UniProtKB/TrEMBL annotation:
Transmembrane parts of this sequence: none
Catalysed conversion reaction: chorismate = isochorismate
E.C. designation(s): 5.4.4.2
Domain of life: Bacteria
NCBIfam families registered for this protein in UniProt: isochor_syn
SUPFAM superfamilies assigned to the protein according to its UniProt record, in alphabetical order: ADC synthase
Homology family: Belongs to the isochorismate synthase family.
Keyword vocabulary terms for this entry: Isomerase
Species for this entry: Nocardioides faecalis
Name the UniProt record assigns to this protein: isochorismate synthase
C-alpha cells in the first residue's frame, strides 16, 4: 500500500489509530466503533464478468490465517467484483478533534434532474399498474467536480464525525500490483446504515431496510413522521417484499430463522427507516457458505432492486441506464473461516481524482408519489453531499 504511515507496520500496531494517520488511500471496513484496517495488500482478485459463486469460494479458499478479503460487489448480475486479500488489524477509529477544513470550489451536476426523476417514477408506476412488477428501486446521482480535489481520508474523517450509517468503508476499486495499490484511480467510500449479512460461526444476521421518510429539525414533527412511517401501508408493503426475499433465500442454507412480525424504526441523521432484524443458524453437517457466499446469495435484495427481480432489473436498466456501477452493490469482509460482514453500498461515493459521484435510490410501489420520492432521494443525497463538504 502506498504512503503507509509508520504505525501501519505488521509489528507494533497501536491499539488506536485515527483516519488522519491512515494511508492517503485507506482500505478499511468499520462496524460501529471498531474498524478493520488493511496494512498490507497481498493480492487483488477481480472479475470483470460477474462475481459468481466459484469466484467467491476461490477468494475465501486462498485466505490464510490472519488474512481477510475486503470486497466490493457491484449491483447487477454479470457486473464486476473485486476483493483485496490483505493482512491488518482491528482499531478504534476516531476522527481528529481539530480537523482542518480545506476551502474548495464545487461544480455540481444533478442527473436525472428532479423533474426527470419524477417522470421515471411515473413510468415505473405505470409498470406496477399493469402488473409487470410490484416494486422497483430507482436512483439518481450528483456528479461533483472539486477544486482542489477531494481527499479520501478527509471524507472518512467526516463520515466518522457525522456517522450517517454504522458501516464506514473505504475500498480502492483498482488492483494492487506486487502488494502496492496505485496512487490514483477510483475509490469507493461511504457509511451504510444497512447490514446485508453477518456470519459469526454458524450464526447469521441480516437487517434489511426498506420504507423511509426524511427527518426534520422540529422534534415533534420528526416523531410524527417516524410514527407515520411505522403505520404506512405503502411502506410496510415495500418492506415486506425485502424481508420475504431474504428469508426465502436463507431457507436454502439455514434453520431457526427468526424475525419480528413487524419492522422496527431505525434512524440516521437525515432519514427514518423501517428495519427488520433477522437471525438464523446455518444448517448443520457442513462448513456452510462463507459470508462472501451469503452476500452473493442474497444480493441484490428488493431493497435495492425490486420484485420480480428480472422485471425490476429490466426497468432499472431502461430508466437509469448505467448510473449504478458500484452503487447499490455490497461491500464488506470475509476471513479464512468464512466469517465476515457485508453492508449494502448506500450512502456512498466514488472518488476519482477531482471527480466525485453520489447515488441515492427510493423504492417505488403502488401508492408511491413522484414528488415524495424526489424528496426522499434528495434527503439521501444530502447526507453524502454534506460529508464531502458541499454547502
Amino acid at each position: 500500500m502506498t504512503d503507509r504511515p509508520p504505525s501501519a507496520s505488521l509489528d507494533g500496531v497501536p491499539a488506536e489509530i485515527t483516519p488522519a494517520a491512515l494511508a492517503a488511500r485507506p482500505l478499511l471496513f468499520a462496524s460501529g466503533e471498531e474498524a478493520f484496517v488493511a496494512e498490507r495488500v497481498l493480492r487483488t482478485w477481480q472479475t470483470p464478468d460477474g462475481a459468481d459463486a466459484e469466484w467467491g469460494d476461490a477468494v475465501v479458499a486462498a485466505l490464510g490465517p490472519g488474512e481477510r478479503a475486503l470486497c466490493a460487489l457491484s449491483f447487477a448480475a454479470g457486473a464486476p467484483g473485486l476483493a483485496h486479500q490483505v493482512t491488518g488489524s482491528e482499531h478504534a477509529l476516531r476522527p481528529p478533534a481539530d480537523a482542518v477544513e480545506v476551502p474548495r470550489d464545487y461544480q455540481v451536476t444533478e442527473f436525472p434532474t428532479a423533474e426527470q426523476y419524477a417522470e421515471m417514477v411515473r413510468a415505473a408506476l405505470d409498470k406496477i399498474a399493469d402488473g409487470s412488477l410490484y416494486k422497483v428501486v430507482l436512483g439518481r446521482c450528483l456528479d461533483v467536480l472539486s477544486t482542489p480535489p477531494l481527499v479520501p481520508g478527509e471524507i472518512i474523517d467526516r463520515l466518522l464525525r457525522t456517522r450517517p450509517g454504522r458501516y464506514v468503508f473505504s475500498v480502492p476499486l483498482v488492483p494492487a500490483s506486487d502488494g502496492v495499490l496505485p496512487s490514483d484511480g477510483p475509490i469507493l467510500v461511504g457509511a451504510s446504515p444497512e447490514l446485508l449479512v453477518r456470519r459469526e460461526g454458524r450464526t447469521i444476521t441480516c437487517t434489511p431496510l426498506a420504507g423511509s421518510v426524511p427527518r426534520v429539525a422540529d422534534p415533534a414533527e420528526d416523531r410524527r413522521r417516524g410514527e407515520g412511517l411505522r403505520t404506512s401501508a405503502k411502506d410496510l408493503a415495500e418492506h415486506a417484499f425485502v424481508v420475504e426475499a431474504i428469508v426465502h433465500a436463507l431457507k436454502g442454507v439455514c434453520e431457526e430463522i427468526e424475525y419480528p412480525a413487524s419492522p422496527e424504526l431505525m434512524s440516521t441523521d437525515t432519514i427514518w427507516h423501517l428495519a427488520t432484524p433477522i437471525r438464523a443458524r446455518l444448517t448443520p453437517g457442513s462448513p456452510g457458505p462463507s459470508a462472501l457466499r451469503l452476500a452473493q446469495l442474497l444480493h441484490p435484495t428488493p431493497a435495492v432492486g425490486g420484485v420480480p427481480t428480472a422485471a425490476a432489473n429490466a426497468v432499472i436498466a431502461d430508466l437509469e441506464g448505467d448510473l449504478r456501477d458500484w452503487f447499490a452493490g455490497c461491500v464488506g469482509w470475509v476471513d479464512a473461516d468464512g466469517d465476515g460482514e457485508f453492508a449494502v453500498t448506500i450512502r456512498a461515493a466514488v472518488i476519482d481524482g477531482a471527480r466525485l459521484r453520489l447515488f441515492a435510490g427510493a423504492g417505488i410501489v403502488a401508492g408511491s408519489e413522484p414528488e415524495a420520492e424526489v424528496r426522499e432521494t434528495g434527503a439521501k443525497l444530502a447526507t453524502m453531499a454534506r460529508v464531502t463538504g458541499l454547502p
